[in-house]
Structures are given as C-alpha cells and as structure tokens.
DNA sequence: ATTAAATTTTAGACAAATCTAAAAATAAAA
DNA sequence: TTTTATTTTTAGATTTGTCTAAAATTTAAT
C-alpha cells in the first residue's frame, strides 16, 4: 500500500485552488491563483516552481499552468477530505452550512488516509457535501452531474437547488437569509432585463429578488432532484 | 468572547510536553524536553525564548523552566483537544486505542474552540480518553484523581496503577512477575464471581489472572494517572 | 579547590513560505 | 509598429522553526 504521501498545507491549498480554477478555464494564470489564495503573484510563482519540481504541475514560465495527473490526484484527495469534514460538521456537530468552510480548510490537511476512509464510512458514504458539491471517492473519482445556474433557468419552471458555486460566507449568509439552501425548490417568477435580476419564489414564502451576480452562483438541476439526506 | 488565541503547532507541542514533564518533576530541563519532543536541546532553547517573550513560561537561562498560568491554560486546551479526538477516533471511527495517538497529534492543532466544544457534546462529554487519561473541560479544569482498588475497577476500563496497598515483598514479587508496577496501564478483561478473581490485561502482554486478595491491594486511578501519557 | 563531565546556551546556517520592489516578457493600444 | 499597460518572474528580505558546532555555565569528581 502506498504510504501517506504528504504535501504541506500550503501546497495542498495551491493544488486545490488550481484544480478549481482549471475547471472553469482550462488553464490557470498566476494572477488568478494569487487572487483565489489571497496571496501575491510572486508567492504563487515561487510555489509553482516547487510544484513543478515535484512533478505535480505542467508549467512553463509566462505560459500559464495546469495540474498533471499526479497533481489532479492530490487535489482530489484534498477536496475529498474537505467535503467529508464539512459533511461531518453539519450532520454530526450541528454546524450551519455557512460556518463550516473555515474549519474544513484546516481539517483537510490532516494526512491519514485511514482516518478519512473511516470517516467516510462513519458518515455513510455521503455523495455530496452540505453545499451540494460531490465528494470524490476513496480512489479520487468524482461524480459529475448536470447543473445549470439560476440565471439559465426558464421562467416558471420549478427546480431544486443542487449546489452553490461561490461559497463565500457573505454569499451563503445572503442565501440563508432568503431561505434558500440545498434541496430548496424554487421557481423564477419574473426576470428584469434592466439588471438581469430575478424574482424568485420559494414555497410558503414571499418572493425575493436576487441579483444576477447571486443567481449565477446558485446551481439547480431541473430534471433529477437530489435526494436530500438528513 | 475571547477570540481563538492561536499558537503554532510547534508551540502547542512544546507547551503540552512541558505540562506533562512538570507533572512529574516540578521543574523541567532543556534536555528532558528535547528528548520528549525528539528534537535538539538547542532548538528547545530557541523555543523557550519565544514562549517566554509571549509570557507563557517562567524561564531564566540555565535555571530550568515551567509554565505560568497562561501557559498552563494553553497546554490544557491542547490536551483537551488531543484526548477528545482520541476518544472520537476510538469510539466513533473504530480505531484501536494503540493507533490513535499519531492522528490526534495532528488533530489537536485545529484551532476552533467551537469545534471542540461541539465535539465534546457530540461525544457525550466523556471524562477520560481511551488510555484512561482525564479530559479537561471547556474551562480547562482537570478532574482531581481518585484512587480505587483493582477489584472496584469496571470491566473494560483502562486504568493506571497508582499505588500498592500492602507492600510485602511477596506481594511485590507477584506483581513484578506479572509485569505490573507503578504506572502500568491495565484493563480488566473478565471477572470470575466464583472466587472474585480477575483476568487482567497489560498492553503487549498475555492476560494474567489475579486473586481477589491481590486485586484489593492494587490501587488504580481511572481518571488522573501519575505519569500522564499523551 | 581544581579538574572533568554534563548541561545549556549562543553563533551561524538552512529550508519553507511569504513579501516588496524592480526587471523581463507578453498583450493591448495608439 | 512603436509605445504603453498588464502580467509574470526574479532578486533580495523576512519570519518561523530547525540544525550543528562551539562557547558558556553548572554540576560532579577527584
Ligand atoms: Mn486549507
Ligand atoms: Mn463545500
Ligand atoms: Mn501535536
Ligand atoms: Mn491518550
């Protein structure tokens, strides 16, 4: 069995952020990564060299970069840990889904593979974290699912929230305030072309208005509603 | 509310080790601490200066050192975290009591106080970790020890020998023969009502049978051991 | 009381991760 | 195609934690 390969917390944070960024754009830039990690471009460059030396990254200077297979595998393990811990915090320790991210940001760096596999079993092998993001399995396989954002949802069609793209605590707080969470069924009542804002209706609630910015970050699946586990 | 005061993992490890060492001897020496932490005396001296500057330590060079009130408080929080995580690993994730230490050594450095208090509640406010060591409460209070004899010890509970009531040489020889001495951790595997004899297990040894007569003379403290292990 | 041994501290070095300021390369505008 | 702006990298520092080797101090032995 492969022993626990260890990367520093900082390296793991970089790998994870690169993974996420390259999901959106295929290639990642120094500035984008620096912004994502709240650090400086120069620091990113420093780290890129190290990751390249460790053969986790495809990188040529001035040309952008992306993870290679090793790097992707490592990133997925970190993501797995992060999401399992988030699930644990919400489902077992009664944290709100908007307050678990910071803590998981630390817990994700605990190395033991055995620990995380046991935790997975203890939690009943959940498929998604409290924000609706899928949890990679023990081999790092990630389930993909089709999701569209709220802005793309046609008027009058009921859909169920299946994920939140930008998980800043500010964003989560706003949704919380409007009673929108994972599994919430909602419907677009009106679209305002002026600023692309939406009036959204949640069952048993007065309608609320969401900005285009927010709408783009709320992911829904209109065909197969996710089974909300509790 | 006091925000989470953060100390580096290395500082926490030092504080904890100093706490344990000064339980045994009142004052701690550089070499002893270096040995406990598997590091070098020079490194210890470096850290002592920092801990002193942060007012966690009473220290004058060449004179030994010990924690002050702040330092003791910090150490107890780390010990609390360590032991609660160990309990979690054994009771919830089915780890063996002999394989949790390393992992807890990492988990103990996760900062969030809220996390640890929630974990505590989730676990049902356990009083002792899987090795029989008492778990400090949220305010850092450690339970005071109480001594009972082996015959009174509940089945399956790990305890540490803290005294021998009748110290005849015959008695001591018998205990010696069975590898039981001060500080030995043991657990009762079975009680035979017929003659009130006990089957006792010491780590890394085959089980041994003790008569009721012997058991009554072996004193253990199931909460606060003399020589605290992590 | 000297001398020898052990302990502890200092001096100086190194690795990891970060930063600022300046230089180099690339991209965009004129 | 020059010029200008933006992005990225380098050069050089800084902080934290660690180390080795040597010096200082304390303790133990003769
Ligand atoms: Mn993290
Ligand atoms: Mn999440
Ligand atoms: Mn530790
Ligand atoms: Mn323990």
Describe the 3D structure.
Chain A is α+β, with helices and mostly antiparallel strands. Chain A folds into 2 domains: 1-136, Orthogonal Bundle (Arc Repressor Mutant, subunit A); 147-226, SH3 type barrels. Helices cover 39% and strands 15% of the residues of chain A. Chain A has 8 helices and 8 strands; from the N terminus they run H-H-H-E-E-H-H-H-E-E-H-E-E-E-H-E. Chain A has helices at 9-24, 30-37, 41-53, 69-91, 101-107, 113-122, 169-177, 212-215; strands at residues 57-59, 65-67, 148-149, 159-164, 185-192, 197-202, 208-210, 218-221. In chain A, the strands form 2 sheets. The first copy, chain A, has a 6-stranded antiparallel sheet with strand order 3-8-4-5-6-7. In chain A, helix 1 packs across helix 2 (30-37) and helix 4 crosses helix 5. The longest helix of chain A is centred in the middle third of the chain and has 23 residues, at 69-91. Chain A is globular, with a radius of gyration of 19 Å. The model of chain A is unreliable at 224-230 (pLDDT under 50). At the A-B interface, helix 5 and helix 6 of A face helix 5 and helix 6 of B. Residues 83, 86, 129, 131, 133, 229-230 of chain B line the site of one manganese (II) ion. The structure holds a DNA duplex (30 and 30 nucleotides).
């Amino acid at each position: 069995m492969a022993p626990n390969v260890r990367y520093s917390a900082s390296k793991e944070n970089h790998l994870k952020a690169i993974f996420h960024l390259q999901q959106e754009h295929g290639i990642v830039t120094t500035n984008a990564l620096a912004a994502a990690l709240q650090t400086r471009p120069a620091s990113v460059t420093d780290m890129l060299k190290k990751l390249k030396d460790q053969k986790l990254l495809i990188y040529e200077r001035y040309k952008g970069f992306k993870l290679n297979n090793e790097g992707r595998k490592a990133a997925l393990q970190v993501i797995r840990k992060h999401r399992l811990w988030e699930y644990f915090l919400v489902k077992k320790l009664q944290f709100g889904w908007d307050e678990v991210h910071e803590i998981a940001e630390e817990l994700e760096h605990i190395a033991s593979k055995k620990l995380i596999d046991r935790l997975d079993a203890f939690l009943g092998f959940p498929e998604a974290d409290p924000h609706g993001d899928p949890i990679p399995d023990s081999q790092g396989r990630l389930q993909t699912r089709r999701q569209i954002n709220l802005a793309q949802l046609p008027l009058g069609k009921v859909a169920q929230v299946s994920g939140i793209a930008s998980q800043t605590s500010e964003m989560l707080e706003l949704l919380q305030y409007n009673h929108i969470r994972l599994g919430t069924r909602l419907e677009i009542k009106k679209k305002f072309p002026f600023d692309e804002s939406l009036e959204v209706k949640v069952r048993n609630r007065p309608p609320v208005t969401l900005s285009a910015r927010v709408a783009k970050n709320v992911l829904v699946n209109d065909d197969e509603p996710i089974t909300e586990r509790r």
